[in-house]
Write a structure and sequence with these properties.
This protein is of the alpha+beta class. It is built from 8 helices and 7 strands. A hairpin with a 2-residue loop joins strand 6 and strand 7. Helix 3 runs antiparallel to helix 5 and helix 5 packs antiparallel against helix 6. The mean pLDDT is 95.
Length: 249
């Protein structure tokens, strides 16, 4: 395949960015999108140019590092991570636009790399449980009903890639935050921090500068792990419950 790439290039956070055009040839349809970018970077290095900076790690769809807007879609045309997107999703001769996540809370570091540490701070605000130190408890000491376990696991699948934020017209982080809140709040181990968790994580989310949620649903559509939109309404219920309980103290 021969492709034309229009790639966002930005030297650093304070520099002006622009779309640069490159031609790549000999691309196999079985390559992943990131492998295709590797080919582009080899080409740029051989010609003495600065390679395109982009995030990647496991390249197995589980770390959430890869974060690209491809032809206007978070992670591209398939509902998967960028590293698991294959070039057979495109046609020979296509022009492909490659941009970083677009959100005020995700400032560009360089080229296609953005700073997603805002997610880390949201988790630090309350995404943990109180656990006693010492020997591991018996596996069946705290029974968890299967529906609750399934619900928790569904939300635990969130890999924190940020596609929900990039796809949201408001740049909201509600789907990510709700996945982290619901994952722990439904389990008995998460009960001690149930109220403080949702209040602290939502407060931190707002402080980070993410936009407000209007339930457009773009976040759930873009999520490569299928976190459901109802996760947000679940977190809203938890937040109302916590604020009412706090008001009675």
């Amino acid at each position: 395949m021969k492709l034309t790439l229009r790639v966002w290039r930005q030297k650093n956070a304070g520099a002006e960015g622009t779309m640069s055009t490159y031609e790549v040839d000999g691309i196999s349809p079985d390559m992943s999108f990131l492998e295709m970018l590797d080919v582009l970077n080899e080409q740029l290095i051989l010609s003495g140019e600065d390679p395109v900076a982009f995030d990647h790690d496991c390249r197995e769809g589980i770390c959430g590092a890869c974060s690209l807007v491809i032809n206007g879609d978070a992670h591209g045309p398939e509902r998967t991570t960028t590293c698991q997107l294959h070039m057979r999703s495109f046609k020979d001769g296509d022009t492909i636009d490659v941009e970083p996540w677009r959100a005020a809370a995700f400032p560009v570091v360089k080229d296609l790399v953005v700073d997603r540490s805002a997610f880390d701070r949201i988790i630090q605000a309350g995404g943990y449980i109180t656990a006693p130190t010492g020997s591991a408890p018996e596996a069946h000491a705290t029974p968890v009903p299967k529906p609750d376990a399934d619900f928790a696991f569904e939300h635990a699948e969130c890999i924190g890639c940020g596609a929900c934020v990039a796809a949201c017209p408001n740049g909201a982080a509600m789907l990510f935050t709700s996945a982290k809140v619901n994952h722990l709040n439904v389990l008995p181990q998460g009960a001690p921090e149930r109220e403080t968790r949702v209040l602290d994580m939502v407060a931190q989310m707002d402080e980070e500068g993410f936009g407000g949620c209007t339930l457009t649903g773009e976040c759930a559509t873009a999520c490569p792990k299928g976190i459901p939109l109802v996760s947000i309404t679940g977190m809203n219920r938890e937040w109302l419950r916590a604020t009412r309980k706090a008001g009675k103290r």
